[in-house]
Hints:
Elements: H1 5-27, H2 34-41, E1 47-55, H3 57-67, E2 77-86, E3 89-101, E4 104-112, E5 118-125, H4 131-134, H5 137-143, H6 148-157, H7 170-193, H8 195-206
Antiparallel strand pairs: 1-2, 2-3, 3-4, 4-5
Amino acid sequence: MIFQRPLFKIICWLLLSIWVTPAYSIAYCALRDPVTKIYALFPEATSYKSIVHMIDAETQDQVSLKAQFSLHKDELGQHTLYIAMKDKEPLGIIHSRSEAGLWGLIEIVWGFDFDMNVVDFTFQRCRETSCPLLMTSSFRSLIKGKSSSELRAMLDDDKIVYPPNVAGNKDAEALATTLIRSAIKTALVTEISWRDDLDAFSNMHIQ
Length: 207
């Protein structure tokens, strides 16, 4: 059977979209290996809890207002927040987010305390050559312990003091900016969409 060229192109495009779209959407913010990632960020954890909420257009608007940059439309939908537990005591928050990179999606797993300060981060997927540079303690210490407002001030003032292994490397500096923006978005999304849950776990943590 011989296909006419326009019809053949349409069929190929439809088949490609069917194959690509689900894989892309599934990978966008999924925590692939919760046990490994959660215990890496919170070594004292003995278990974890998960809470699913919808990130919608209203959340997108609030993030845009507070961060002065927006969530991508593919970041909307149902997402899972994880609470690291030590027996019955909540230790902190784990949230996976994805950002566009030069070589595809960069999947970042963030750890926060209950005041929404950065505890640490790790990559779940990163094909950028400068990813190892940002996993060093010298860079991580730059953002650990900071709130979304402190991170936003770093970007607004354009006075980020990069460690020597990052400074002057344009790709590494660009990835560092992407990471900082991701931390800001993740903190704000978590605060907005999981506020009641976080208050409950925070009260448990204080007791």
